[in-house]
Design a protein that fits this description.
Structural class: alpha/beta
Radius of gyration: 19 Å
CATH class: Alpha Beta
CATH architecture: 3-Layer(aba) Sandwich
Strand order of the largest sheet: 3-2-1-4-5-7-10
Oligomer: single chain
Distance between the termini: 25 Å
Largest sheet: 7 strands, parallel
Bound molecules: NADPH dihydro-nicotinamide-adenine-dinucleotide phosphate
CATH superfamily: NAD(P)-binding Rossmann-like Domain
Number of helices: 11
Strand content: 15-25%
CATH topology: Rossmann fold
Number of domains: 1
Length: 298
Amino acid sequence: RKVLIGGGTGFIGSHLGELLGTKGYNVVNIARMPGANNISWTTLENSGLPMRSCAVVNCAGQQFMDFTKSWTPGFKQNVQNSRVYTTKALATAINKCLDKPKVFVVLTGVGAYEPSECNKYDESSPTTGIDFFSRLTIEWEKAAKVDPPVRLVIIRSGAVLGRWGGMIKNMFLPFYLGLGGRIGNGKQYLPWIHIEDLTRLIIFAIENDNVNGILNGVSPQVITNNDFTHSFAKALRRPAFLPVPEPILNMLLNRERAMIMTKGQYVIPKRVQEFGFRYKYDNIDDACKEFAHLCPKK
Ligand code: NDP
């Protein structure tokens, strides 16, 4: 049983690869740099899928919270292309392939839904394309078109919480030093999922033939930025009294990018639960306890 992972070298992709490995799958990554288990995007485009895979997953994408990069038109283009082109390249390779995989799983984001303090979104809610991230997600998901009988599963993920990547990697040090705090007024929703649940959900989508279409990859517990701040500080046994004012973030990061932190959406995983997926972390306090540690990476 083989799985091909676009962006398999990243935070989510490598965690997924490890979990698949423990379940007896063979994993091949697609990456920009050569590596033991990697093929390049050019090889994929020129030669198609490298092997008979039961599933193809895309977890590739230039990180937009890379604070060393300014929010320039060129960088935004890179953020867009690294998601849309990689997804299109995989969909094209799948459509051309004779011995097709059973399923194509594409990881996108809850940025598909317009930030709001009053709307509630499940998988049937419309996307409006009103801001950069929702327009990007619409393009990204459009690029994922695969012909039947290949199943398409699109997972719109919330902030993925784990010790070694994403939001927690960025916030760990300030919180550990007791310099953490809410962002803005802290009332914005923070759709979240623990890394282990997200990778389990991807495997659930691979292994269950009835799962298809859009899934909201979020925990059923809806929280705000305030709730998260409180739980994370409690798990680290640190105070978190230093709020980060919204205008400062807007100035440092650019308002359009800062939106990821200053605005949020109330998102529920209705279809995920209807399909019978069981979360391991459906409570932010338990999730924070899991990654609030200084142990070195295994
Ligand atoms: P990482 O930055 O840890 O990994 C990103 C991966 O994408 C790497 O494997 C990298 O592969 C690849 N990549 C980066 N830039 C490019 C590029 N320009 N062209 C092709 N490939 C590229 O990110 P995460 O694992 O955290 O996120 C993976 C995906 O999940 C992203 O698309 C992200 O938007 C989405 N997501 C993440 C969330 C989170 O909280 N982390 C939340 C919601 C969605 P290599 O360098 O080896 O080529």
